Every structure is written in C-alpha cells, then in structure tokens.
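Hi there,

I know you've been waiting on this one. I reran it after we fixed the sequence typo, so this is the corrected version. Both the input and the resulting structure follow.
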Amino acid sequence: MSPPLAVSAKVLIVALLALAAVFVAWFMRDANPWVALAVFALPPFLLAIGRWRRHRTAGYWASVLGLFWFSHGVMVAWSRPGERGYAWAELVLALVIIFAASWPGVHARFTRKRA
C-alpha cells in the first residue's frame, strides 16, 4: 500500500477540481459549451486525477498551466466586467495551484538538513 498523499498534494487536487467546477459553471451558458469545457475544464480535471494517481509530472504541468490560468483570469477580470467573479475565482485558484504544486520543492530546498 502506498503512503498517504501529502497535504500539498491534497490541496492541489482540491484546487484543480474546484477550478474545473468554476470553468463548468462559467461556460455552460455558452452557445457551444463543449469546446470551452474541453479546452478549460478538462485539463485541470485530468491533472487532478493524475496527481491523485501519483503521476510525477502532474504537479509540474499543473503549475505550468497555472501560469496560463492566472494570466487568463487577470485578462478577463480586467476586460469583461460581467465575468469578473469567475475570473477572480480562476485567478485565486491558479495561485493556490501554483503554490501547492511548488511547495514540496520549496520545502525541500529550504528545509534545514538534520545531522
């Protein structure tokens, strides 16, 4: 049996699933929501599954896409007042994803080694 997931991995999974839910709520009112859902909601959902299944690169790709999601959230929050709430949710969740995905490396880098 594998060891339990770290707290940062659990936070990452929850944030990715929350972001996918935000995208589903955001784009379901579009005329053709399936394209937007495939482009926006499917990647965080698949990354959450990948991290849950302990794929090593899922956290890396989540943080890379987190930069895209952050930029997209800033752009939409700035330019479309009607969608500002969804954009802020995307922006905040992108920051949580980036920090949760990066935390194990930051912790390993700056933790004092015991003799």
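Quick highlight: The chain is about 80% helix and 0% strand.

Best,
R. S.
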